[in-house]
Structure formats: structure tokens, C-alpha cells
Amino acid sequence: MVADKHDRGRSRGKPQQIADEIRSMIVSGELGEGDSLGREPELVERFGVSRPSLREALRLLEADGLITVVRGVHGGVIVHRPDQRMTARTGSLLLRSRNVSLADVFEARTLLEPLAARTIAARRHRRTAIAELRALVVREEEVIDDPERFAVANARFHERLVSLGGNRTLAIVIEMLNEIVVRSVMAVSDADDVVGSLATRRRGLRSQRRLLELLEAGDPAAEDHWRTHMAVVGRVMLGQEAARVVDLLVRDA
Hints:
CATH topology of the largest domain: Four Helix Bundle (Hemerythrin (Met), subunit A)
Strand content: under 5%
Structural class: mainly alpha
Order of helices and strands: HEHHEEHHHHHHHH
Number of strands: 3
CATH architecture of the largest domain: Up-down Bundle
Number of helices: 11
CATH superfamily of the largest domain: GntR ligand-binding domain-like
């Protein structure tokens, strides 16, 4: 009986081992977005396991959002790289369970982004960062008449501002927070509610260009300017939804 329990334990552990191996290949970059792992018979042979063990391993990975199992004659296992949509899905569930409001999530952005602005302004070699941000503002100007495309371009500016601040962990956090706020608001409204009217978008771009001027001059006022900017953006974006508890639909994340 002890041996039977031991065998069952090893059997239960095999799917986790397979899942860990595949997960490692995805995270390390050995497998990229859209790559095919192969079909079930091939994977059974490759890993030397039974079909039930393989299917359990794939179920674990699919639950993590790292693969999609496509059924049918032309099916197979398709790889997905971790991104902000994945972290947003997990983060939103935790925030919702604790009754966190959208205003609270946006406030976190308002605390973090000005710090990135201060860091860039204080950096001696900041021209490359400013040039990249300026190119992103140009992109926003190009799509300013299209609310949905503008929302994407605008989110990219905010994310890169933090990334160029130099802290990669904060950059990932900002990506997640952006995804949660934008998708949560758009779930109950439309793109115009997220990015405001055309006049509002133009004012926002003037504020971004002012930020770039302050960054270029190395002016510490860049931090306060961006804090004020973010407060205004929060009022425009959230509106009556500010008090609503985070509720990012899992199926859309």
C-alpha cells in the first residue's frame, strides 16, 4: 500500500514537471509567441508520459495563459508569451477580491509616473529617452482623431515614460495598472470616455510636450507638472466610474 501511494504521488507530480519544463522554455525565450509545441501524440512521445498526464500538464499551462490548445485536425498547442494582459487578469482578480476602486488603482499610477519623470530629468544622458518620448507624442498626434488608436498610443507613452525611468519592475507594474484601468473603463463605456474629447486630447498632448521641455532642461519641476497632469487625466478617464470596484472580465483579459 505504501508503494501504491508512492507511485500515485509520482504520477501526480509528472504533469507538474512537464508544465514546469515548458513554462521555463517560454519564460526563457526559447519558445516565442505563436510557436507551436506540436500535437498531442508528438508531445506524449517527446515527454514519455501518458495522455492523461500530458493533458493535465497542458491544462495547468492553459490556466496560466501560457498556451492555447487548438482542437481538430489542424490543431496543436500554441505558445503565448507573458504580457500585461496576463498580469492584469491576475491582478484584477486580487484587487476585486479586496474591493479596490478604479480611483485607487489610478492613484498608484499618479504616484509612480511623476517619480519616473524626476529620474529622467536628473539624468545627465537623457537625450535618447527624450527623443523616444517625443516620437511617441508624434504618433499620438497622427492618430488623435481616432479614439481607440489614440488610447493605445497614449498608453504606450505612459508605459515608456516609466520604463525609461530605469526601473523595470515599476515598468511592469505600470503596464498592469494601465491595462486594468483602461480595460475596466472601456468595458462599461467607449473609447471616447477613456481618452476624452478631441479638445481634451489636444490639451493632453500640449501637457506632454511641456513635460518634454522640462525633461530636456533637466528641470525638477517635471515631477510636479506630471503629477498635476495625471490628476487631470484621472478625472477625465474615470469620471463617474472612479468609485467602481475593479472588475476586469477574465474572458477579456
